[in-house]
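=== RUN LOG ===
request id: a7f3
mode: sequence -> structure
chains: 1
length: 329
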Amino acid sequence: MSEATMGSNGASTELLQGRSVAVIGYGSQGHAHALNLRDSGADVVVGLYDGSSSAEKARADGLRVASVAEAADGANVVSVLIPDTVQRDVYEADIEPFLETGDTLVFAHGFNVHYNEIVPPDHTDVILIAPKSPGNRVREEFVAGRGVPALYAVHQDSTGNATEFAKAYAAGLGCTRAGILETTFAAETETDLFGEQAVLCGGFTALVQAGFETLVEAGYDPALAYFECLHELKLIVDLAYKHGIQGMRREVSDTAEYGDYVSGPRVVGEASRAAMKEILAEVQSGAFARQWIDEARGGQACFDRMRVDGAEHPIEVVGKKLRAHMAWL
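=== RESULT ===
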C-alpha cells in the first residue's frame, strides 16, 4: 500500500454524528465497531438473537441491546458483523424487511454480497469497511488515539453519498488515523479467501505439519521438531511483520538467511505455485464459496471431521504438553 493510495482520504466523523447505527453481532469486530462508533458520536444499538451470551457484555459496556429485527427497524445504518454462514438467513428474516430508502448496509467482509447470497434492494447504499486487524486490536488502537489500516468499498450507491459515508464510518473506527485503501467487494473477498487458504491458514499449517512430520519420521525427538517448526515461527513472523521480509533476514543469522535463499524456493516451487493458481481460480469462480455454503447448510459433517483430525495431529499433542511449561503464555 503506497503513500499514493493509502491515506485518510480527507475523512472525518461528521456524517456519523447522531446517526442511528445497528451493529448486528458483538463478537471480535462487532464489539469494536459498536464501541468505536459510539465514542465517535453515533447512536449505536447492538442487535443480537434472543439468548445471546454477548448481551450481558454489551450492556456492561454501556450499549443498548435489542433483537436483530428491533435494532434494524430503528436504524438507518445496519452493520452486519456476524459469521458468513448465518448472514443470509439473518438478513432475510430480520434485516431486509426493515430497510428503507436511503438506508446503509455495512459489511466487514464482502463474501455474501459478492457471491450473491445477499442481494440488497436498489434503494440502499451498500458499503464495505474491513479493518486489517482483529477487533480487539481495532478497539485498543482507537482507545490509544491511534488506529489500524482498513479497506473500504462501495457496492451500491443509491444516495450519491455512499463513498463519503464509508470514509466517515472508517474514521469513526479510527482507521483513517492509520490509512484507508479503496477497493471493491470482489477484490477484498477474493484476496482475503486466497490469503487464508494459500498462505495465512492453509499454507502455514500444512507447511508446519509437514516440517514436523519430516523431522519425526527421520528419528528426531517430537519436542525438538515442535520447537524448530512451530514454536520459533513467532520470532520470524514478528520480525517480518515489523520490518518486512528483507528486514527479517537482516535480523536472523547469516546461516539462516543463506538457507532461506537456497532452500525456500525448493519448498514453495512450481508445484506450490500451480496449486495457488488453482485455489485462486476456485475463489474467483465461486466454486469455493459454493462448496463452503453447501457444507455449512448440510450440517458441516466434513468440516467437523476435519476439525477433529486436526486436533489429533501429533504436533498438537506434543505442543499442548510443551506449552504447559511456558508460563508467559
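=== NOTES ===
Residues 120 and 204 are 36 Å apart (CA to CA).
The chain has a mean pLDDT of 95.
=== END ===
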